Amino acid sequence: MSEPTPALPRVKEWWTRPRVVLPIILALLALVTLFMPQAADETGDARLSTHLAGSLGARMLYETAERLGWQVSQRDTSPIPDGRRGATIHAVLAPPRPISPEDAHAYLDAVRAGDGLLLVLNQRNALSDSLDVRHSPSGGFLQLIARDTAGCPDRRELIPPLWPDRRVHLWSILWLRNAPDGRVVFATLRPEDDHFVPAAPEAAAGFELGKGRVVVIADPDLLRNDVIRRCKWGADVRVVRMLEWLRAGGSVPRVAIDFDEFHQGYGRSPSMLRATSRFLTGHPVGRTLLQITLAALVLLLALAPRPIPPVDVERVERRDPLEQIDALAHAYEQVRATRTLAARLLRGVRWRVDRGWPMARARTDDAFLTELASRDPALADDVAIVRRALEQTVPDRDLPELAAALRRIEHTLTTSTSA
């Protein structure tokens, strides 16, 4: 019987080996991540600010004007336009912060004196009300001009535009009164449907105001970075045409563009903390409330639990006065302090008889007894008993006699004094 033939080892194909497959998969993932189209960021900062380089910002407008020779600047701290009158274009790009009537007055005074104004409409403000212009609640497609898009490469961009249909949707200008005569239209609209037939389908127009010029743009989307950078829409050419029109028409060319970033929120905005502190320090009622609050805090700190408990004051317990008298009596009795006893009893008599008179208290006990014996001879025996008790120790049996003598002396003195 022949032995079975051993099976040949199974050889793996090279393309199934992990060291070959895994690098290929990682390379494909990297290519997909790099070249996958990304949707436009329409949820970011939507302010039309020249500080923002995102798709919704206006940084490209700032850089384009700078490269074409304009002296560009960003005004972040002042709401009022400044600069050389007659040589500056003030760009107010759909400010989210309201423009006060004082700021609008300053802008219009500068334009009447010879400056230019590039105003992009968004929310209603004092400046748009002064010019009697708003944007219409409806709009249309931007009317393309062939010569503006001539030479643009016909290629499909990987980054999608702001609008899915790849057409520019804009609001139109709504003149609250009659449209200015002799205005220059820089952008027109095509209707989105048959029902939209505006009286003046204008997306951007310019007109004279005093010695200066004003360009009004109905929709801020016309100046966004994602719109200006697309060559096939021709928005960049229209923006430059507006700036060129604003530069001309004056005694001197308006070569400076001042972008208002204060009303974009980069200036010092109202603060609840600052208003509260100004009220508490600058108003009488506020100062009163501040003092009451500080006093309440001090009281709260005084009554609140302390992290370190206070140390109890050590108190020495003292005897009751009656107990002290009894203790002294026992002490005097033990040491046979009859002279001290006699002196204390005589002092009590003198205090009650003299009524605490300072001159009487100044006399010595011996002088008191001598005067008493000379004034009333009937008390001579009692005075002798008291004097003997003050000078020498007396037996216990003589103490009642001492007490009786002092009682008679006090009775005699108080009776004669009352009489």
H and E order: HHEEHEHEEEEEHHEHHHHHHHH
Biggest sheet strand line-up: 1-9-2-3-8-7-6-4-5
Count up the domains: 3
Q: Would you report the number of β strands?
A: 9
**Per DSSP, what share of the residues sits in E-state strands of 2 or more residues?**
5-15%
Structure description:
With 419 residues, this protein is of the alpha/beta class. The chain has 3 domains: 59-149 and 156-264, Rossmann fold, CATH 3.40.50; 272-297, no CATH class; 321-418, no CATH class. The protein has 14 helices and 9 strands. It has helices spanning 18-35, 59-67, 101-112, 126-130, 225-228, 235-247, 272-282, 284-303, 321-335, 338-354, 358-362, 365-375, 380-391, 399-418; strands at 71-75, 88-93, 116-120, 133-142, 169-175, 184-191, 202-209, 212-217, 256-260. It has a 9-stranded mixed β-sheet with strand order 1-9-2-3-8-7-6-4-5. Strand 7 (202-209) and strand 8 form a beta hairpin. Helix 7 crosses helix 8 (284-303), helix 10 (338-354) packs parallel to helix 14 and helix 12 packs antiparallel against helix 13.
What would a concise description of this structure say?
The protein has 14 helices and 9 strands.
Key words describing this protein structure:
single chain; 419 residues; alpha/beta; Rossmann fold; nine-stranded mixed beta sheet; 9 strands; elongated
Helices and strands in order:
Blueprint: H1 18-35, H2 59-67, E1 71-75, E2 88-93, H3 101-112, E3 116-120, H4 126-130, E4 133-142, E5 169-175, E6 184-191, E7 202-209, E8 212-217, H5 225-228, H6 235-247, E9 256-260, H7 272-282, H8 284-303, H9 321-335, H10 338-354, H11 358-362, H12 365-375, H13 380-391, H14 399-418
Helix pairs in contact: 7-8, 10-13, 10-14, 12-13, 13-14
